[in-house]
Amino acid sequence: MAGNSFGNLFKVSTFGESHGEALGGVIDGCPAGIEIDLEAVQQELNRRKPGQSSIVTQRKEPDQVRLVSGIFEGKTTGTPIGFIIENTNQRSKDYSHIKDQYRPSHADKVYDEKYGFRDYRGGGRSSARETASRVVAGAIAKQFLAGIEIKAYVSSVGTLHLNKPYNELDLQNTENNPVRCPDAAMAETMEDYIKKIRKEGDTVGGVVSCVIKGVPSGLGEPVFDKLHAELGKAMLSINAVKGFEYGSGFAGAEMKGSEHNDLFNADGTTRSNFSGGIQGGISNGEDIYFRVAFKPVATIMQKQSTINKDGEQVEMQGKGRHDPCVVPRAVPIVEAMAALVLADNMLTKRSNKI
Ligand SMILES: Cc1cc2nc3c(=O)[nH]c(=O)nc-3n(C[C@H](O)[C@H](O)[C@H](O)COP(=O)(O)O)c2cc1C
Ligand SMILES: C=C(O[C@@H]1CC(C(=O)O)=C[C@@H](OP(=O)(O)O)[C@H]1O)C(=O)O
């Protein structure tokens, strides 16, 4: 099974299944001499971990990371950084009912078809539990990117939208509530809504917005490896993601050039930023901002029709501990993937200077 590595120069490979012994990864290409704050790495994992509030999956995992190589006396050595997170709270019996039948809109059927066999416990490799490894790698990338600030937050849950641009929000408030929405009143409305949806045995989608400040100009490799294309791939590789837009995004399609053009100031900065900090695939020094759309979780606690391995129509109802809405826990994952893209592009920029 290929496809488990991300990045070219700052490269991470992840391993592990939701109900296996452990998850983990190897980061290759992280430069030597970076001071690593292990508590900050753990803090990022705590933001993502299951069981953290009443509006996420109730699986209780400590998600304690163990760094096993590549760091000596608190600094990266330039050798591969290996890390492990043990699984401690699997409840595999919840999944025996999907051994021979498929959850609609999860990855069960396609994994069986592609590989002829699958670890059905907890969704195996297709589970978003894998994203714990991304968060570790992203936390190390963030430390390499000192001076660049990456902040994601929840901007929609279902049809509840926070209709304010990021520069009118105080993003310091994002971590003050379990939804991770920086507007306290909207966060409360969203939280109540997620609770109501959970009671109904249903799930709901949402949007994570992200802003990156302090990115130097010149990151991104046209023509195929444009910075926004790399960000798009990174975000679309996260479980349950259905959409990515940067800058003006789909709204830009409704505008005129005379409204949309980012006019220059004399110092080369721009008066507006519909470009989202990237022009021609290269960062221009303005804020990079983008949005990521997540679908409603597939495993619902309501009866739905599906098929079994023999192609018979059957009824099934989800079991186990699932997220009613993924966006509160997706915030640190989005930040981690953005950090990995920037770290990789930073190293590429260094390597193509004569
Ligand atoms: C943070 C996070 C938590 C998730 N939790 C669940 C969950 O509890 N149950 C579930 O069925 N899907 C959950 N998902 C989504 C599935 O992992 C995903 O839908 C599945 O792998 C199929 O892939 P696809 O939706 O990208 O096509 C979660 C996704 C994320 C990002
Ligand atoms: C365990 C995590 O989330 C899991 C993501 C997930 C899925 O299908 O993506 C399904 C559930 O898995 P399980 O029933 O095995 O607990 C979630 O709890 C995690 O993110 O660490």
Task: Characterise this structure.
The chain is an alpha+beta fold. It has one domain (5-351): Chorismate synthase, AroC fold (4-Layer Sandwich). 26% of the residues lie in helices and 21% in strands. It has helices at 38-48, 108-115, 131-144, 184-199, 227-236, 249-252, 257-260, 327-351, and strands spanning 5-6, 11-15, 22-28, 65-67, 71-72, 75-76, 81-86, 149-157, 160-161, 206-213, 241-246, 278-279, 282-283, 288-294, 303-307, 313-317. The strands form five sheets. It has a five-stranded antiparallel sheet with strand order 1-2-3-7-4, with helices on one face. Strand 5 and strand 6 (75-76) form a beta hairpin. The mean pLDDT is 97. The site of flavin mononucleotide has 19 residues, from helix 8. Ligand EPS is lined by residues 18-19, 50, 57, 59, 61, 122-123, 127-129, 132, 239, 320-322.
List the helices and strands and how they pair.
Blueprint: E1 5-6, E2 11-15, E3 22-28, H1 38-48, E4 65-67, E5 71-72, E6 75-76, E7 81-86, H2 108-115, H3 131-144, E8 149-157, E9 160-161, H4 184-199, E10 206-213, H5 227-236, E11 241-246, H6 249-252, H7 257-260, E12 278-279, E13 282-283, E14 288-294, E15 303-307, E16 313-317, H8 327-351
Antiparallel strand pairs: 1-2, 2-3, 3-7, 4-7, 5-6, 8-9, 8-10, 10-14, 11-14, 12-13, 15-16
Flavin mononucleotide (FMN) is lined by residues 57, 106-107, 126-128, 238-240, 295, 297-299, 322-323, 326, 329-330, 333.
